[in-house]
Design a protein that fits this description.
With about 325 residues, the protein is mainly alpha-helical. The chain has a domain at about 40-240. It has 13 helices and two strands. It has helices spanning about 5-10, 10-30, 40-65, 75-90, 95-120, 120-140, 160-180, 180-190, 190-195, 200-230, 245-255, 260-280, 285-305, and strands spanning about 145, 230. A two-stranded antiparallel sheet has the order 1-2. Helix 3 (about 40-65) runs parallel beside helix 7 (about 160-180), helix 4 runs parallel beside helix 6 and helix 5 packs antiparallel against helix 10.
């Protein structure tokens, strides 16, 4: 077996591909817009936003690897961020951290319980629940924009944003490598009937997946409100746009999970998405063109992650 063939079958091949993709996107946009894109300061900003979305992508991974989706994470982010600001006014950093973690986790648990109870499409369930969560955010914010105190914004910039984000990544990696959660999630995603016949409590692990997703969305909410410094309550599914960037990172994780590093793939995938978004902004492309390119990229990634898989290898 040749050296290249051995490398291609190794777990590092996928990571190298992702890093090369990120460099390629950076180089293309840097050539096209040398003055407005790709300086070291701007790259740090691109990475900063990518780290935020990657946390949510890690949470979504537990759900998507089984087959369902969660389209309520945008509403969860809005609600948890509003609650975080309110709690921080009374309890400082303690409230800023604990409140969104509890809120996000409870929303995830509710999603899982309702989804398993109704036994209908997860898309329908989570979109319907999004309307409820948005309404709750309006009540929680009393219809006003919630602004985080200037003395409580440490998690919005380096180095504390990295600390929080990487704690979430390591926790996700630990769950995927050292717990039954990963094994059973992959088994359910591969063939739910077979997994159930083998004794896997499918209902339990699907609810747990939604709950874990909610927890990671809670962490993302801490980073989101700290970076953006303010949050406005949403209505009429206005929060839905917050779903897709984390979801695209999740698809990177699904596409490259065969190499054994889904969390790394999610993080680098979000950096690639961030480079794309900011590259088009630097070029002055209209929002409609950006949406078209983003939609094409999303369809391409989905197609790559939904190819039929023969057998299942769990590492």
């Amino acid at each position: 077996m040749s050296t290249f063939k051995k490398f291609k079958e190794s777990q590092w091949y996928g990571i190298v591909i992702l890093v090369l993709m990120a460099f390629l996107f950076w180089a293309v946009f840097k050539i096209l817009s040398p003055d407005n894109f790709g300086s070291s300061d701007k790259v740090l900003i691109y990475i900063k936003t990518a780290f935020i979305y990657a946390v949510g992508g890690c949470g979504l991974y537990f759900i998507c690897v089984m087959g369902p989706f969660d389209f309520s994470i945008g509403a969860n982010i809005v609600l948890s961020s509003v609650i975080a600001v309110t709690a921080s006014q009374y309890f400082g950093y303690f409230g800023l951290i604990i409140a969104p973690l509890i809120s996000g986790t409870l929303v995830g648990l509710i999603n899982g319980l309702v989804y398993m109870r109704l036994q209908i499409s997860s898309l329908i369930v989570t979109v319907g629940l999004s309307l409820i969560y948005e309404a709750l955010s309006i009540f929680a914010a009393n219809g006003k924009e919630q602004v985080l105190d200037i003395n409580l914004r440490a998690f919005g910039d380096y180095p504390w944003n990295i600390v929080v984000a990487f704690l979430a990544y390591f926790f996700c990696g630990f769950l995927l490598k050292y717990t039954k959660m990963a094994t059973y999630s992959y088994a359910i995603g591969s063939n739910e009937v077979v997994a159930k016949n083998m004794g896997v409590d499918v209902k339990k692990y699907k609810i747990l997946a939604f709950t874990l997703c909610g927890f990671f969305v809670g962490v993302q909410s801490i980073l989101t409100i700290s970076y953006g410094t303010s949050m406005t309550s949403a209505s009429n599914l206005a929060s839905m746009s917050r779903n897709f960037t984390p979801l695209m990172g999740t698809f990177f994780g699904l596409a490259f999970k065969k190499y054994g590093h889904p969390v790394v793939a999610i993080v680098i995938g979000e950096i690639i998405i961030s480079l794309m978004f900011n590259g088009f902004v630097a070029l002055g492309a209209p929002t409609t063109i950006q949406n078209v390119i983003t939609g094409i990229a999303l369809l391409f990634i989905v197609a790559a992650t939904t190819k039929p898989i023969k057998g299942l290898v769990v590492k």
